[in-house]
Write a structure and sequence with these properties.
alpha/beta; Rossmann fold; 2 domains; P2CMN_synthase_LarB; PurE_dom
Length: 247
């Protein structure tokens, strides 16, 4: 129940003042001992809290989901283990999972598309798809029209140039690449919209687990490019959604 629903329920005498006060106490955050769930984030930021599953045990993740589910929130979990998903699916049958990017989703209500245009996710290679799909599912979950152009890296640049018209029709572009990380610079030189660059840890030894791609993207000569952390598809999808909803 969000704040508007709560006030409406109280106004219509569907709940008494004590029950309303009890619910209001839990609006800012709810202390579970191992986690403080920020129920107020939807009101402040327009998006509910997202669960980063890596490093949490199954009981902790399920406990957080239970409390968010009670509030009627749509739930997104990133870096979720398959075994964890299977346990959650046995409790919540509307739970969905993507094995490629390890994203878990539970939709308590339909997602309204509030984006002003299209977000396009582009990868250098097929090996970048797990991170790119994290971008894709995050942006979709947050209410956006999202498209994908995969495996169009600079080693065969004609593949990218063939899609120039589609690139130029997007409102925000997220470019996901490993190796030397040159693709965002090329895309940035072809379009007049914001480009979010995501370095991946894909590459051989001197790639330093994505550090070389990160430094290339930070030093891009193309204007209008922002860079998120290595393999941070969620952060890129979230930022792209915020940009896409601006007037």
């Amino acid at each position: 129940m969000d704040l508007r629903e709560l006030l409406s329920e109280f106004k219509n005498d569907n709940i008494d003042i004590e029950e309303a006060l009890d619910k209001l106490k839990k609006l800012p955050y709810e202390d579970l001992g191992y986690a403080n769930i920020d129920h107020h984030r939807q009101i402040r930021n327009g998006y509910p809290e997202v669960i980063y599953c890596e490093g949490k045990n199954d009981e902790q993740i399920i406990g957080i989901i239970e409390k968010m589910y009670e509030k009627g929130s749509n739930i997104l979990g990133t870096r979720c283990r398959l075994e964890t998903y299977e346990k959650i699916k046995s409790i919540y049958d509307n739970c969905e999972y993507d094995k490629t990017c390890k994203i878990l989703k539970i939709n308590n209500h339909p997602i309204e598309n509030k984006g002003k245009g299209k977000i396009l996710v582009v990868t250098g290679g097929t090996s970048d798809i797990p991170v790119a799909d994290e971008v894709y599912h995050t942006a979709k979950f947050l209410g956006n029209d999202v498209g994908r152009i995969y495996d169009v890296g600079v080693a065969g640049i004609h593949r990218l140039l063939y899609r120039t018209e589609e690139l130029q029709s997007a409102r925000v572009i997220v470019v996901v690449a490993g190796m030397e990380g040159a693709l965002p610079s090329v895309v940035g030189g072809l379009v007049d919209v914001p480009v979010i660059a995501v370095p991946t840890s894909v590459g051989y030894g001197a790639n330093f687990n994505g550090l070389s791609a990160l430094l290339t993207m930070l030093n891009s000569c193309a204007s209008g490019i922002s860079v998120v952390n290595i393999d941070n598809g969620f952060g890129a999808g979230y930022l792209a959604s915020m940009i896409n909803k601006l007037d």
